[in-house]
Specification:
single chain; about 180 residues; mainly beta; Deoxyuridine 5'-Triphosphate Nucleotidohydrolase, Chain A; 5-stranded antiparallel beta sheet; 2 helices; globular
Length: about 180
């Protein structure tokens, strides 16, 4: 019995709480109206996150800063980037991370993507989550507070180490580079 108590204490100290293979991630709302991301459909891998605040990039005089805008909408010009704050912070359990990825419909229809896709949120990060959004189209795109702007996908970390070797094992592709497999 004491072995199980120690196991439970260890899990709680790492913020891991499982119920029927569900991982519970502590969530802290940082802005009014912020809600945890959730999947649109039960079997979706990604959970939709919403814009709570816009942060404009200011790079005047070589000083880089983000300026929080007090606006319900933001017009994103072609090739422009903007920070979309998601309004929450988390305590991701040790051994896990989240990927921040574009929503396919926004990418296809509006040319909206995530600049550093996938963005990575590490277990130790405790600040507000933000999606760095870019407009890859040739038209202005209007973003609104509360819009679903990105998806987050849970990933599990694995310990690994690179091991130097003189020769790599053969593969079917071999040394073929970019485009070596053709189009058809």
């Amino acid at each position: 019995m004491s072995r199980n108590k120690n196991k439970n204490k260890s899990e709680k100290s790492q913020h891991i709480m499982k119920k029927e293979d569900k991982l519970f991630v502590p969530f802290k709302s940082l802005r009014e109206g912020a809600i945890p991301p959730f999947p649109s459909n039960p079997d979706d891998a990604g959970a939709d996150a919403r814009i709570m605040v816009f942060k404009k990039i200011n790079n005047e005089k070589g000083e880089k800063e983000l300026i929080e805008l007090n606006s319900e909408t933001y017009t994103l010009k072609p090739l422009e980037r903007v920070g979309c704050c998601l309004g929450f912070a988390t305590a991701i359990p040790k051994g896990y991370y989240f990927k921040v990825v574009p929503r396919s419909g926004l990418a296809l229809w509006d040319g909206i993507s995530i600049v550093n896709s996938p963005g990575t949120i590490d277990a130790g990060y405790r600040n507000e989550w933000m999606a760095i959004v870019v407009n890859l189209s040739n038209c202005d795109v209007i973003l609104k507070r509360g819009d679903r702007i990105c998806q987050i996908i849970l990933g599990k970390m694995y310990e690994y180490e690179f091991v130097e070797t003189e020769k790599l094992p053969d593969s079917e592709r071999g040394l073929g580079g970019f485009g070596s497999t053709g189009k058809k």
